[in-house]
Amino acid sequence: MAEAYIVGAVRTPVGKKKGGLSTVHPTDLAAHTLKALIDRTGVDPAAVEDVIMGCVMQFGPQSMDIARNAWLSAGLPETTAGVTIDRQCGSSQQSIHFAAQGVLSGTQDLVVAAGVESMSVVPMGSSITAALEKGMPFPFGEKWAERYGKQEISQFRGAELMCEKWGYKRDTLEQYAFESHQRAAKAIANGHFKDQIAPINGVEDDEGPRADTTLEKMAGLKTLKEGGQITAATASQISDGSGAVLIASEAAVREHGLTPRARVHQLALMGDDPIYMLTAPIPATRRALEKAGLSMADIDVVEINEAFAPVPLAWMKEFDADPARVNPNGGAIALGHPLGGTGAILMTKLLHELERTGGRYGLQTMCEGGGQANVTIIERL
């Protein structure tokens, strides 16, 4: 049976909005990560067959196939192709799936899965805003409206709907967010991220975590919706960042003298209610565990994207998961969520945390626009 191995994973620090990475062109941001991945693995870049890069706002500086342009900007061989994909927030986790599937199929041996998003340069919603400005009526078309009605479709509404369904009030959400900042600050102080980060533009550490935040400060914020539960403190941060993972076949490992660090154990996808939008990690995780023949007790580390606090809270409740194993070094509420870059960044964190702690299985999942979710299970080697 064919195997797909992770032989390298690296990321930039995650920059806060208008922070230290905001002056870096998105293509150069991604190029920096790609070059760091090649340098750290020592692989011959001419042997890489494809660069699959997630990017959500493929508009302006992030348009025109940023995967290909970033590879070329990194000074890497013209013979390697590149493609840019969009599965919303899960774009670069899907890049990992496509890369692993190419290797598992036997049609490819070395593929880079990557992601990038500079939300400082290309604001969230830029592409749809441009369309609306040109007079497009309903964002998803009349056939969508016939099925779901012309109602608000947004992650903010989805987060509030989750709070209603699972009964979460803002004090619970804020306690979770506070813990995310504490974990992230502790991880940075203890150097847990040092080996996985390729510093850029003078930025060496993630800029988002607030070690000095308090529950009192969070309680003073206004909710995003009148009468709602979500505030800026319990939502992921607008961020800039990039990550890259190198996937190799057994043949490539032998030929290039690479060291497998983990194998891709299971891949799963699932769709759920697009109005709730953020709930799909729950059924997708059930599917992945069932396909893998594993239970939650087998999973040593979980990285679930903290798009909003109710997402990981509801997920943990549904699986009775040990909170100590879930986002042990903090999540996107503290560390930021650079949309298309987050999937590859989370995989980099997951791999390094398994190696640091000696864990065997890691699970990554994230909610995505349209009510979708990817789940990736890896086994540390």
Instruction: Quote the beta fraction.
Output: 15-25%
Return residue spans where pLDDT drops below 50 for at least 5 consecutive residues: none
Class from secondary-structure proportions: alpha/beta
Could you say which overall geometry the principal axes of the C-alpha atoms support?
A: globular
How many strands, what sense, and barrel or not for the largest sheet?
10 strands, mixed
What does this structure look like?
- Helices cover 36% and strands 19% of the residues.
- By secondary structure, the protein is an alpha/beta fold.
- Strands 1, 2, 3, 4, 5, 6, 7, 8, 9 and 10 form a ten-stranded mixed sheet that branches.
- It starts with a strand and ends with a strand.
Sequence-ordered SSE layout with sheet pairings:
Elements: E1 5-11, E2 15-16, H1 26-41, E3 50-54, H2 66-73, E4 81-85, H3 91-104, E5 110-118, H4 126-133, H5 142-148, H6 155-166, H7 170-189, H8 215-219, E6 239-248, H9 250-256, E7 262-271, H10 281-292, E8 299-304, H11 310-319, H12 332-335, H13 342-357, E9 361-368, E10 372-380
Parallel strand pairs: 3-4, 3-5, 8-9
Antiparallel strand pairs: 1-6, 1-7, 2-6, 5-6, 7-10, 9-10
